[in-house]
Amino acid sequence: MAPKTILVIDDEPSIGRVVQFKLQQEGFKVSVATDGLEGLAKVNEEKPDLILLDLMMPGMDGFEVCRRLRAAPETVTTPVIILTARGQEMDRIRGVELGVLDFFTKPFSPQKLLERVKEVFKSP
Amino acid sequence: MILLFEIIAFLLLLACGGLGFWVAYLSRNAESARKKEEELQARVKLLEDEGARLRLKGAAGPMPAPLPPPKASEEPFSMKDILLHVPDGLVVTDANLRITFANLTAERIIGLPAAEADGQPFWEVVKLHEEDGKVLGEANCPLAVVLERRTPLVRDSDILTTRYNTEVSLAAFLAPIPDPEGKSRGAIYLFRDISEAKQVDRLRDEFVTNVSHELRTPLTVIKGYVELLMEEFGDTFMPSQKDFLRVINEESDRLAKLIDSILEFSQAKTGEVGLRQEQFNILEVLEDSIKFFTPPAVKKEIQIVRRLPPDLSPIKGDRNAIRFAVDQLMDNAIKFTPEKGTVSVEVGGWKLEDGLWKVELSIRDSGIGIAPEKVSQIFDRFYRAEQKVHTLQGTGIGLSIVKEIIELHGGTISVESTPGQGSKFTIRLPMII
Q1: For testing the chain A interface, which of B211, B214, B220 should be mutated: the one with the most A CBs within 10 Å?
Q2: Model confidence over B181-238: pLDDT tens digits?
């Protein structure tokens, strides 16, 4: 079976690299985008099986990226996990409305993120 | 001689003329005083009528003709003059929520001449919605609640849509106007434009959120790489290398926790979350905190001595905030107490002169103490008692937050300290009996 592909969209390249390293160790194919537009372009190009998405990014923020993903038939069901530095309740509510799978509040443990990612692909 | 006579006659004439003038002047003056008195009485009557009208104006009937403008500046002001010029917006309605009066400030904020507002339904003139967008119309007009329940109401987060289609945040005081039997005959809506203050609050919230974001992102990177190093290469590290990584990791955790508290506290202060009002037992909070700090205490062979009553009335407030305050004090006490020292935790009731009770909670360490000249500064933001001692951790913001939390609960915090012997922090909080 081909490896699952994961796209990390985070304006902080170092976070992208940590996550990429951790997930690649487990055999996932991981690519990184550093803003919303680049992220959407890579979504079209690579059709990832899972998207890890930062909320606060310059230009287009994570909510807008998510909204656009949900508006496009191809990505309407693509699982999204939010990586956020803001733990606010309102963000969670908005996220749930946009059908995101989970929230990881920064600083998060790469190990725990990996476990969650594995779980996503385990469930039918 | 003739000349002299003439002069005398002239002077007499002058005097007579003068007298006549004075007589005329005095009588005129008396007349004007009487007139004034009459005018004054008329004005008083008008004032009384106006007062009665304002008190009794009922459901129907056109507004009586407006009062003539005052003739002179020393005239007393009418009630209407005063109400018209009150620098807060004022709208008065009858029992059917039809507007009977709106003052100049209300006109200015709403953007509608009072004459046009007269007789209109309140909700059509004062177009309000809540912050979440819910429109406060005929069905759920807050003034209707006031009329129905006959109790005043404060609303400080409604938004008004003006006639210019702009939005204004209002702080409003609503009150019923009762008749002698206590039924509501009308209602008062007194309001103020607080858009600027709200904007400042919003900017501050955004600022705190952004700062917290800016701080958490590098922390995520640091913690992420430390974790990767430990997990991927841990087997090849020497014990000291592992130990250094563990310190980096622990300190990152501490920083993350501090950012959380600042964010949480800032939100509590701006009222976004608000301090919760719950009943809880301070003894439980203390026990939880002591349990949390037992491992670091054991590590330094510090003995934690409890002097606690078996039971205590609950206090009212935000349990998490109080726990945060207690934790900060415990953290400091253990940090500043040398190995094999003692930290004692004491709780007692404390009766006030007015018969109310306060709970008094003190945490005493056997640490380096605080110099007398520095005691008064330790609750200031970003202050640390011994800046030079690099082995002591702390950001200096902890105690100032503790102080604010305790004061928000109506309590006080104080400190006694003897350099070389230790410090005792005492929190006093109101207690429910």
Answers
A1: B220
A2: 888 899 999 999 999 888 887 787 777 777 777 888 888 899 999 998 988 888 999 9
Q: Which of A102, A106, A95, A21 is nearest to A65 (CA)?
A: A95
- Asked if pLDDT for residue B393 goes beyond 80, the answer is no
- The pLDDT of residue B18 is 43
* Chain B, window 179-218: residues with a beta carbon less than 8 angstroms from a chain A beta carbon: 209-210, 212-213, 216-217
Nearest CA to CA, how far is B259 from chain A (Å)?
Answer: 11
Based on the number of CB atoms within 10 Å of its own CB, is B153 exposed (0-12), middle (13-18) or buried (19 or more)?
middle
- In whole angstroms, give the CA distance from residue A37 to residue A59: 8
B341 HSE (CA, 13 A, CB side): 19
Query: A101-115, B38-52, B59-73, B81-95: lowest mean pLDDT where?
Result: B59-73
Q: Is B254 on the interface with A (CB under 8 A)?
A: no
Residue type, position B196, single letter: E
User: Measured at the alpha carbon of residue B294, what is the angle toward residues A109 and B394, in degrees to the nearest 5?
Assistant: 65
pLDDT in tens, B70-113: 555 667 889 999 999 999 999 999 999 999 999 999 999 999 88
The token pair that represents B425 in the structure block: 């922090």
Residue B410 and residue B408: Cα distance in Å, rounded? 5
| Residue boundaries of the structural domains of chain A | 5-118
Contact across the interface for B223 and A107, Cβ inside 8 Å? yes
Q: pTM for this one?
A: 0.46
- DSSP-assigned states of every residue in B224-262: HHHHHHHHHHGGGS-HHHHHHHHHHHHHHHHHHHHHHHH
Q: What is the ipTM of this complex?
A: 0.73
Structure tokens at B84: 């018209």
Contact yes or no for A85 and B221 at CB 8 A? no
Strand partners, B90: B190
Angle between helices A110-122 and A13-25 (to 10 degrees): 60
For the segment(s) B79-193, the CATH number from 3.30.450.20, 3.40.50.1100, 1.25.40.390, 3.40.1180.10 is 3.30.450.20
Q: Please count the residues of chain B.
A: 433
**Structural class in CATH, domain A5-118:** alpha beta
CATH class, domain B195-274, is mainly alpha
B273 pLDDT exceeds 90?
no
Contact flag B216-A85 (C-beta cutoff 8 Å): yes
What is B275-433's CATH number?
3.30.565.10
Binned at pLDDT 50, 70 and 90, residue A88 comes out as low
Amino acid at B168: V
Chain A contacts of B224, Cβ < 8 Å?
14-15, 18-19, 22, 107, 109-110
Which residue from B minimizes the CA distance to A17?
B221
- Which residues does chain B have within 8 Å of residue A85's beta carbon, measured at their own beta carbons? 212-213, 216-217, 220
Distance CA B282, CA B38 (A): 70
